[in-house]
Amino acid sequence: MTYPTLGELLKKTEEFFEKKAIENPRGDARRLMAKGLGLTPMQVMLQFDRPLAESEVAILRDLVARRAKGEPLQHILGVVGFRHLEIACDARALVPRSETETIVDLALDRLRETPKARVHEVGTGTACIALSLRHEMASLRVTGSDISSDALSLARHNAQNLGIWLPLCRADLLDGIRPESLDAVVSNPPYIASGEIPSLSSEVRCDPPLALDGGPDGLDLVRPLVAQALDRLKPGGWLFVEHGHDQGLATVALCGEGWESARTVKDLAGLDRFLVARKQPSPS
Prior knowledge:
The chain is α/β, with parallel strands linked by helices. It folds into 2 domains: about 5-70; about 80-280, 3-Layer(aba) Sandwich (Rossmann fold). Helix content is about 40%, strand content about 20%. The strands form 2 sheets. A 7-stranded mixed β-sheet has the order 5-4-3-6-7-9-8, sandwiched between helices. The chain has a two-stranded antiparallel sheet with strand order 1-2. A hairpin with a 5-residue loop joins β8 and β9 (about 270-280). The longest helix has 15 residues, at about 55-70. It is elongated. It starts with 5 loop residues before the first helix and ends in a 5-residue tail after the last strand. About 40% of the residues are buried.
């Protein structure tokens, strides 16, 4: 039996993904070929004429079938790039997405003048945010928590694999954190309304339900988080929370007495995405 060359299989895979309405058919096909053959995506492009063995074709077809069924590319590859780090990801935690990267910039910009600031990430998942903060500003004292033991095991793997010191614990929101002990709280909590989850793409629904479901209006976790953060933050401390594109006004409205400068910040696509609020400083 004659088997296709790498270039021929790549072309067929791209066309197949287009029919399946995969968002990035060419890029996904190339990265799956690289994964299955132990190559880099650039090496794939340079080896179009490479004849494939039967065993290689079988491996590649399995990867293609998984992607066509809606399994996230990041789960198949086992890693995803997030800012300057390569983060391991799988079904134990929310897949890190590019729009979330901006929350790291928001925190770094406001903490540069706070020596050895103590930052805690709620619902750390893969720990991509916490690890990026620690990686990009070594003076920060960063910790993280999650209610999911599975997510925490993945977060610990990432911290160990990257060689970044990150104390982690299992906790519901800010339980166990002392009052007025933090300079910043950062979180990408579940914020999708329960009724919207069945209509999400099969790819997004591969994320753990615990990381997606935010209750009837998507804010069931955000409300107590804002209230607890006000208690745990030092005067002048900062809160950074990712939210849905249509939840900006609602999240800002949660920041009543005790907060100042509460506003929603847009992501790189121009959509409302992040609550940024400051606890009122102590009177001078």
